[in-house]
């Protein structure tokens, strides 16, 4: 991780925070402070794989709902590229949801503000057709 740029390190720390919270968070409020360390809360926008648009409050509600049904979540980083104010973050995600194991490829584009906070997140997914 010593070779990573400062924004990439933030993305890795953000991902580690999400993985740490999945088994313990019980409400959207449990996500607010930890994710708020990384996210520009007032101006944040996430565009999901179905072109769904969420602000910070909606995002923490969505993440909490996903986490409530997820027993385990892990990732393997495939590729990371850092440009000014952006990090392209490609990972393999592994979700344990009940008896189902779901593996998806995820490409996330993190856009940062002038203070180094995430202001925009685009999420792109590839998953097997039988997992929908």
For the largest beta-sheet, the strand count, sense and barrel status come to: 6 strands, mixed
Would you identify the regions where 5 or more consecutive residues have pLDDT less than 50?
none
**What quaternary form is this?**
single chain
Order of helices and strands: HHEEHEEEE
Strand order of the largest sheet: 2-1-6-5-4-3
Number of domains: 1
Strand content: 35-45%
* CATH architecture descriptor name: Roll
Class from helix and strand fractions: alpha+beta
The rough form would be described as globular
Q: What is the share of helical residues?
A: 25-40%
Distance between the termini: 34 Å
> For this structure, what is the CATH class?
Alpha Beta
Rg from alpha-carbon coordinates: 14 Å
SS element count, helices:
3
The CATH topology name reads Nuclear Transport Factor 2, Chain: A
Tally of strands: 6
Mean pLDDT: 93
